[in-house]
Every structure is written in C-alpha cells, then in structure tokens.
TrEMBL record:
UniProt-recorded name of the protein: Endoglucanase
Keyword Hydrolase: yes
One GO BP: cellulose catabolic process
Catalytic residues of the enzyme: H397, D448, E457
Amino acid sequence: MSLIQRLSVLGMAAMAMGLVASHDYGEALTKSILFYEGQRSGKLPPTQRITWRKDSALRDGFEIGVDLVGGYYDAGDNVKFTFPMAFSITILAWSVLEFGQSLGTDLQHSLKAIQWGTDYLLKATSIPGFVFAQVGDPYGDHNCWERPEDMDTPRTPYAVSKEFPGSEVSAEIAAALAASSMVFRPINRGYSARLLKRARMVFEFADKYRGSYNDSLGPWACPFYCDYSGYQDELVWGAAWLLRATKAPYYRNYVLANIQNLDKSSSFAEFGWDTKHAGINLIKSQTPEPFITNADKFVCSVLPESPTVSVSYSPGGLLIKPGGSNLQHATALSFLLLVYSRPLSKDSRVIHCGNVFATPARLIQVARSQVDYILGSNPLNMSYMVGYGKKFPERIHHRGSSLPSITQHPQHIDCTGGATYFYTNNPNPNLLTGAVVGGPDIKDSYADSRADFAHSEPTTYINAPLVGLLAYFKSH
Ligand SMILES: *[C@@H]1O[C@H](CO)[C@@H](O)[C@H](O)[C@H]1NC(C)=O
Ligand SMILES: *[C@@H]1O[C@H](CO)[C@@H](O)[C@H](O)[C@H]1NC(C)=O
C-alpha cells in the first residue's frame, strides 16, 4: 500500500467516525447482555425478557439418564456446543472481573448470563471421568430450519472420556468455571466454591487424559467447532485461570512449564474459541516473563500502523481476519487491547513496534474504533447489533428469530416447513435484541442475507468480549 493509499484509508476511517454522532454505549451494553436470553436452552424463568422465546429441549440427556437441560445455543442453530459455550462464559466472566465496576444495573443481568452457562457446565461435568462436549446431532439440526421450541431432530449427547479424551473442551470448561468462581466469590461463596472445585477436577481430567475431541468425536465435532489449534493452549489457559483463582504454586509451575509447548509459529494475534494464545499472556497473577514480551508482540500484530501488523483493516477501518464471523475477531482482539491498556497506563509504559510507539491511549482508541464501527460508524452507516441504531441487520441467520413465534403461530412447524421463512426476503419477525452478526466483508459491504451465514449469523462469542468493552466505554 502506498503512503497516499494509507492516508486515504485513515482519512476514510476518520470520516466515517466523524459522521455519526457518538454512541449510546449504555444502551448497547444492556442489549448485548439481553441477547443471551434469546440463546437460552431449557426451562425459561418467569423473569425471561425476550418473551418470544419459550422453553425448549427439556429432555436433553434423559435418553441416557443424565440431566443436560439448559445452557446456550451457540449461534443461529439449536445445537449446544460446549466448547464455544464455555469460551463465551470465560470471556463474560473476564468482562465482569475487569469492568464490573462500570456495569451498574447491568451487573445483575451479566451474572444471570454467566450462571445460565455455569449451571449447565456443572451438569455437563457431573459424572467424573466424562465431559459432555455437545448435545444435538449437528447434521440433523443443520438440515432443518426449526424453532428450538419445535425441535424434533435427534438430541444426541456426545461425551469425551478417559478412553476418548477431549482436552480442549475440558480445559476450556475449567477456565470458564475458574473465572466464574472469581465473579461469584463476593456474592455467593458456596456457589463460587462449587465452581472452583469442579474447575480443578475437570482440569485434572483434561490434563491427565490428553487428546483432542477432534479425534474422539470425529465428524460430530469437525467441521462444526473443529479444534484447529490443538489443546495445548487450552491446557495453559485453563491453568492460568486456575492460578488466578487459587494462586496455587501448582498452576503457576504448570503454566510456566507448558507455555513453552505452545506453537511458537502461531500468530500472536490469535484469540478466540479455538485459539487462546494472545489471551494467556494477559491474565493477571503470572510472573512477568515471557508474558509481557508476548503481550507486546500481540499489540504490534494488531495495531494498523505497526510494521509487524498481521491482521487486515477494511477501508472503513474494521479489523479483518480470514474466515467467517469476522466480528468475533474485532471484539475479542479489541477486548485484549483494552485489558492490556490498564497495566500499561498504570506503569506509564509505551510499547515499541519497530520504530512505532504504542501508548495505552492508542490501544484504547483502536478498541473504541472497532466498537464504534460495530455500532454504526462505518461506510454503510449501519449498526451490526440487532435493535441498536436506525439501521441494523434484519435477516439474521437465526432459526428462532426468523420463524414466527409460538405465540403468533402455536402450530408445530416441522423441519422442512421452516424453509419458506428461511428463503423469504421479509425481515425476521422476532427481534433478537443485542445480537451482533458476523459482520461486513473486507470492503465494508453487508448483504443482510439469511443464507449468508458467515456474515449474518450471531454467536455467543462475538458478544462476550463486547460486554466488557461497552461497560468500559459507557463510563470513559
Ligand atoms: C482437527 O481437525 C482438523 C481438520 O481435520 C485439523 O486441521 C486439525 O489439525 C485437528 N486438530 C487436532 C488437534 O488434531
Ligand atoms: C452515511 O451518512 C452520511 C452522513 O449522513 C452520508 O453522507 C452518507 O451518504 C451515508 N452513507 C450511506 C451509505 O448511507
């Protein structure tokens, strides 16, 4: 890219930002948490606020005598994939630990969102030696366009075990339970202790019986939430959260001994449900090295002006990485930038990316630019959060949102009966308020098409880091 092109890219991004008035981060925050109520599986409480959703999957696990009712649907389908679900809970918990003070009245709802997940994770790990990695036959489900309330596809439970291990899914559950135990410690000591005890147990299982659920579950895991990056990162990540929750030397030694095993070639800009590398270096209560060096490298791989940047930016200024559901990267990496800006500010430290200096204020500015883009400061002037702003996605790839509600249409709509609602050009009848979709492409365009799931599907792990970001920007 020539200097002129670079300048014009920056100019356009600045213009896009200047054109739209500042955002109501508080409103967006409330909505980003509300979204989780729309993803709930199981028996809904009387306090349910997204009321077009009703009870669903009330017999999950019963065919094998285990109660697996509850938890979250990961995205626009009706499968409960524990691996990304646990990651979403870890990040929601991290959001609360880091920015809880700014949550205000949204704190209660955030705690509910976390507990809806941890209650399920306790069920998924209630039998020693087994971890339920998902519920629902993903092929049956994906071939159907059905409301969760109508589901008649096989709700097969899939478990990993000592013989058929799944270290990534198990260690991610350990991370989620450990992080959540810290959230609940000042509020409900008993529950917090239960979460922590289970976290230690599940971590031990993950570490002792090593292997990828890729191999153990085969086609039931891949290509849906295939573990590309291996399970070493989840083992270190799980141990790092247990270290933060317990301060136990065992976990400190574990992290230090095993961080060396992490794939060095993998990009420092990786952080998501599959890859934990960049996040590991930012969890507090670790010794400084090698974490600070790695965290600095992370910053230099993300900032647009850095000579070692490894992500792309659209002309409108959106962070882009290859693959679907791009906004997961924009929210997760921005979250890490914001988290890391805090110790940097405290120590008045500036990061050197070659001859480019990165101040803590610059990290916050980049994070804010991504949040603002998502909320409408972009070339299309559109918000990518459903129900926020004047213009937002109307045809999201989401079964419940796109089919008429049970109240509007009490009769059963079967597997193929939903096709009409999938193919229609009409907007979805039910607003999944707060859902953030996969987002625009590298040219800042967005088709708003249900069939284009890589761009139009919301997921629990796009929103989780956004909760922390919005809490911070609401009060800064
Ligand atoms: C999981 O499967 C994918 C696709 O087959 C493969 O690329 C990846 O390396 C596997 N991961 C592990 C940890 O075996
Ligand atoms: C976005 O808003 C600005 C200012 O109101 C306007 O000039 C521009 O044409 C809009 N772009 C689109 C694609 O609507």
